[in-house]
Amino acid sequence: MRLDVEQLGFAYDARRVILEDVTFSLAGTGIYCILGKNGTGKSTLLQCIMGEHDAAGRVLLDGKERGAYGQRELARKIAYIPQNHTPTFPFRVLDVVMMGRTAYMRYFGAPGAREEEIALHHLRFLGIAHLRDQPYTNISGGERQFVLLAAALTQQPELLILDEPTAHLDFGNAHRFLDLVLRLHAQDIGILMTTHFPDHALYLDAETLVLRERTLWKHGRAADVIDEESMTALYGLPVHIGRIGTRTVCVGGDIA
User: Fold this and answer.
1) Domain for residue 185, yes or no?
2) What share of the chain is helix, strand, coil (3-state, %, to 5)?
3) What DSSP designation does 40 have?
4) In terms of CB atoms within 10 Å, which of 135, 148, 197, 238 comes out highest?
5) Within this chain, do residues 87 and 73 fall inside the same structural domain, yes or no?
6) Burial of 4 (0-12, 13-18, 19+ CB in 10 A)
């Protein structure tokens, strides 16, 4: 799938301009990471792509305006997981995951054996099948993140959009999540995600977009975009880039 963002802009009012003239194209089933300081519009950019804000500019999917897609058709193209989600009703985890099949079911239809089979497949794939009968409101924030991912995968989207997907995960699960992104990429699913950590983009060898001062500042391969000079300018503190074993890592702050 091809995503084209053309001259996108968004402002809450004349004094609160968040994004200006953001233009980029993503094609195929790659991994794409968006970097930027707090308040630079990373989450807002994803919300604009999804049509949650009345933004200037255009968003096209496979050459067609996003707004021209119906909800069910769009759900088969893109699955979106926001950074924050507050559970309201104590649905079973399995029921929450099956909701991702809505785009493939008849209107007013109830999920059947096929939907349950697909939902269980993705719960097992993510290693959380043991949660299937737990109330969604009773599991941890990190577990909910994986449940939402399972629900998104049941949509069988071409592109998965994730806003700070590791925000509620501990150190170990954050690393496992990055490995999961690589596994999804191997299954020909495109990934577009925001992150606060340049290390994530480097680990994933992602195509990286850097937001700064309301617009797209840099765009390219992580190894080319993430350098000490650029990251120091972006985050306002000394950033050092080096190798630990086979990995390239970023360290912020002065090193004695």
Assistant:
1) no
2) 40, 30, 30
3) S
4) 148
5) no
6) middle
Report pLDDT digits (tens) over 129-183: 999 999 999 999 889 999 999 999 999 999 999 999 998 899 999 999 999 999 9
Same domain, 144 and 199: no
Show the domain range for 94.
Answer: 83-156
Task: For residues 12 and 174, give the distance between their C-alpha atoms in angstroms, rounded to a whole number.
Answer: 32
198 and 144 in one domain?
A: no
pTM score above 0.90: yes
Helices marked H in the chain: 42-49, 71-75, 93-98, 113-125, 141-154, 171-186, 198-204, 222-225, 228-235
Show the tokens assigned to 187: 């299954």
62 and 122 together in one domain = no
Q: Please tell me the total count of domains within the chain.
A: 2
